[in-house]
Amino acid sequence: MTASTAPQSPAWLDTLRARLTPAARETATDGRVYALLAAISVAIAALTLLYPSTPTYDPWAWIVWGREIINFDLTTTDGPSWKPLTVIFTTIFAPFGSIAPDLWLVVGRAGAVMAIIMSFRLAWRLTGGSIPARAIAGVIAAMALIISSQFVRNMTLGNSEGLLVAFTLWGIERHLDGKYRQAFVLGFLAALLRPEIWPFLGVYGLWLLLIDRDKRTLWTVVVCGVLIPVLWLLPEWWGSGNFWRAADRAQRPNPNSPAFADFPFWQVIKNTWPLMLTPVKAAAAFALAVAAWNWFRRRRDLAVIAVFVLAALWICEIALMTQAGFSGNPRYIILGTTLVAVVGGVGFGRAVQIAGDVVGRLGGERRSSALVLGTGVLACAVLLTATYHWAGPRFRSFGKLDTALRYQAQLRIDLEKSLERVGGGEYFAACGHVVTGTYQVPMVAWYVKRHTKDVGLEVLPGPGSVVSSRSTRAAGWKPEPWTIPGYSKLVEQRSTHLHSTCPAKPGSDAARAAG
Known about the structure:
Layout: H1 11-26, H2 31-47, H3 57-70, H4 84-93, H5 100-127, H6 131-146, H7 151-156, H8 161-176, H9 180-191, H10 198-211, H11 215-240, H12 245-250, H13 264-272, H14 278-298, H15 302-323, H16 334-363, H17 368-396, H18 398-422, H19 425-429, E1 433-436, H20 441-448, E2 455-456, E3 464-469, E4 488-492, E5 496-500, H21 509-514
Parallel strand pairs: 1-2, 1-3
Antiparallel strand pairs: 3-5, 4-5
Helix pairs in contact: 2-5, 3-4, 3-20, 4-5, 5-6, 5-8, 5-16, 6-16, 6-17, 8-9, 8-16, 9-10, 9-11, 10-11, 13-15, 14-15, 14-16, 15-16, 16-17
Protein name: Glycosyltransferase RgtA/B/C/D-like domain-containing protein
Keywords: Membrane, Transmembrane, Transmembrane helix
Transmembrane segments: 33-51, 131-152, 183-210, 217-234, 273-296, 303-326, 332-349, 370-391
């Protein structure tokens, strides 16, 4: 086929291709900036290990699975839903032994730090205008993320939503830079953390193939499209014999899930509304109105509208899945509330910009720059002060959060010390069946080197060992092995007691104390 007879693209498509890329790429952020931001995020996350730290339930299971993969003994029949990207990391960390949990915490927390940085950057970028306007937008967006949706608690305990938010915001920024393949790859990484990303990534992939004829683009989309089901489904088939085990597990929500409400979809929306500060929601509505006006008049600010639409679609998707029987956990909403926070930050920034522009016009040409700057700084101070009524209680709640997080870390510390005193986790588990409380199963499985399915919840007669603990300061001791004949207490720590039908290892601290 000659060039003259080759099928021609529609004129509108050629126009779209011509408009999309060149201008954006001329002002695109240097990729080294992101490498630097990622390095800073990892460094900050590593420093947080100076604070008493522990993963929570899901991350402990991923850490156990990483160890099982390097031992070619993966078992996923029990535990949370599978997440490919998290287990890729924990598999890499597994050979490092006892520090593997802390290495995962660095990655999970680095994702959270990067998410905060990217929310600041995206709000700064979308706002435009003066530096005070951009600064207030970025600060509001970042602060709104930090104090919304239990972000700090979830990220401190090693959940993966920080990475999800970071990859998504980073992808949006690379799209604005005209780096569409990079944006797609970042979306692919997000899709290895939550399946709700798949529809968005699929639409973006089709759009990318439409506007970019480069063979590298075709290969990128095809390879990522194949890897998503491979990485989500094949490990589950290996570990449980069921391709859909993760989906089945996600449809067994906790008792307090909105899935059990009369109308789960609406319950998720109701639960989401208070997660965002009232001033941020109002500012987001203002930013959306201004962006819509700018779009209809001058074809500007489409990105602001798109970010808000993405937030609404994400929240509605989570609500629809909850209506279909999935858990609807509040932390799944974090990506949606973050996008709203970014648009809210833009609203605050636009208010500062408008105030500065009005005063600048009144002040005359010679004094305009100084007046705009001064007005912008004053408006920043006023807006930050005005939001304290809503934000203050959330910042003050960090004291209680600190107490709760330290206690969770104490559970891990006490378990480690207790097992050392009886001769080690493997010796303790060798007595027979191992039992612990509901929320401690994967942590105990890690320390006694068992599959999570081999750590039970019910104390049975016969040879066995029990890790009894209080999951919170106010909770009672669970399980209760003293109700079953044959069990004796080997070790007593503040939050954790060890009971067994077998004695402590000869020569161990507990054995010497008993002797």
